[in-house]
Amino acid sequence: MPSSPLRVAVVCMSNMNRSMEAHGILMKKGFRVRSFGAGSRVRLPGPSRKLPVVYDFTTTYEQMRKDLLLKDRERYTSNGILHILGRNERIKPRPERFQECRDPFEVIFTCQESVYDRVVEDLCTREQETCQPVHVINVDMEDTLEDATLGALIICELCQRLQQAEDMEGSLAELLLSVEEKTGRSFLHTVCFY
Length: 194
What we know:
This protein is an alpha/beta fold. 46% of the residues lie in helices and 21% in strands. The protein contains six helices and seven strands. It has helices spanning 18-28, 61-78, 81-91, 113-125, 145-164, 168-183; strands at 7-12, 32-37, 42-48, 51-55, 107-110, 133-138, 188-193. Strands 2-1-5-6-7 form a five-stranded mixed sheet, with helices on both faces. The radius of gyration is 17 Å and the shape is globular. It starts with 6 loop residues before the first strand and ends with a strand.
C-alpha cells in the first residue's frame, strides 16, 4: 500500500459543482486533492439558458455569492447556486483553471468527455520534465447536484481502491472494469506524462 495519499486532481468545466463536490469528499477522506475548471471562464446559470452569469477564474466564490445575492437572491437560492458557492467557500477561496497549474498528480479525474479531451490535449502539449505518468480518467456525470454527488462517490471509491492497490499501474484496468460493472458507467482512461 502506498505510504502517502494519492495526489489527485478533479476537473470539470467551471470548478463549481462536480469537481468541488468530489474535492470536498476526497479531502474529508484524507486524499491530497485539488480541483479545477478547464473552461476559459466560470459560467453559472443565469436568467435564461442563453444568458449565463460569467466570471473570471480570479473571482472568489465569496464575490460570486455576494454578486448573485444582489442580482436575484430568490432565483439563486432556489436553483442551489448559493448553496454550492457556500460549500465551495469552505473548501478554497476561488476557482482555479487546470491549464494554469503545473503541479504533478498521479491521477486526474474529469467529469465529462469534453473536459477529458481538454485535459489530455493540455497535458500532451506541455513540455515533459520528469516523464512521470499521470492517469487521466473520465467519470462522466451530469452537471446537477445529485449526479455530482453520485459521481464524487464513484471517484472516491476509485481513489480508495487505487490507494490500496499494491501496483496501481498493473491493477488499474481491472479496477476500472470492476467499478464499471458495479456502477453501470464506463470510463475513458489514458496515460500522459509530465
